[in-house]
Fold this protein.
Amino acid sequence: MPGCFRVDNGTRWGSAGDWPTDLALWLIGLGVGMHWNPPRRPQDNGVIERSQGTGKRWTEPGTCHDAQQLQERVDEMDRIQREVYPSIQGESRWHAFPELQHSPRSYSKAWERRAWDLELVLAHLRDYSVVRRVDCKGQVSLYNRLHYVGEKYRGQNIYVVLDPLDREWVFTTAEDVQLRRKLAEELARERIMRLQVSHRPPRRRQRGKTQCRD
């Protein structure tokens, strides 16, 4: 089990200053630390960024006919970098670390259910204070679910924190005036373990869409 993941701010990992994504919450519950690189600072993860650049040059995505051909090129590039390219004192990674070719450890879902700990997630989130802008209906969004705070605050920025003891969202003004509290149903153990924290409405064609105006 890795001790920590160093990640960027892409879709699966979340953006700096906001709540962690479903996948990040699941890893935190397993005891894996999370470190988010600052936005627009690729030099903070230079080795990975250079590796991705090399992969793009080797695979030449713009010359691929379809996604399947691109996938085949990516697989071949990964094989060459892993098994052929001299990396460790003239040897490939494949030859330098032969014990990694066949892992004796299989992932156990039974172990995951025993070991996964919601308290680790709640402890991680207790120091977060996230800004949300109230829409014209007096609502803010958390994990793609709307929470009502009051129409009188529409157009204003408020702050959302988590009370880890009661597992409740706390909505406050910039002056730390509490507006309301609500059970953080999104942070239930089963939802996180199933990666179902964020609400994902079914896609459907809409004839019209009403937008809020401040």
